[in-house]
Amino acid sequence: MVDIALYQPDIPQNMGTILRLGACLGVTVHIIEPMGFPWSERRLRRAGMDYLDGVDVVRHAKFESFAAAKGGRRLVLLTTNASLSYVKAAYRADDILLLGRESAGVPVEVHEQADLRVTIPMHPGFRSLNVAVACAMVLGEALRQTSEDP
Question: Which of 29, 23, 17 is nearest to 130 (CA)?
C-alpha cells in the first residue's frame, strides 16, 4: 500500500487533514520530525476530528531514521522543482509519497535522496498548492494506478 510521509510539518491543521485522509483511505502516515509545533492531540483533532484514532501514524525522530526504516521502498517527492507531472508518473504499490514543509519544502540533501520527483502543473505565477490538497491529489492518482481501493 502507498504510504504518505510528512517532512517536518509546520502547520498542525494541514497535518491533521492529512492524518484524516490517511484514516479514510487506510494509508499509513509517517511523520519525520522535528515538527514546527508540539505534538498535541487537541490541536490535531481540530482538523482531523474523530478520525485520528483510525490512522496508522509512524513517527521518526529525523530523516535518517525514516530513510533507514523505509527499506527498499521507493521515495516519491512532491515538489515544485520537478518536471514530471504527477499524472504522467507510474506509481508502484510500495511507494512512499514524501511532502515537504509548508514553509520550505525539503532540503537539497533530502531532495537528492528521492527516487522519483513529481509536480502538480499550475498556471504561471502560482507557487504551490496547500500541502494537504497536493497530498490528496497525488495520493488519489497513485491509488488509482495501483488499484488500491480502501
Answer: 17
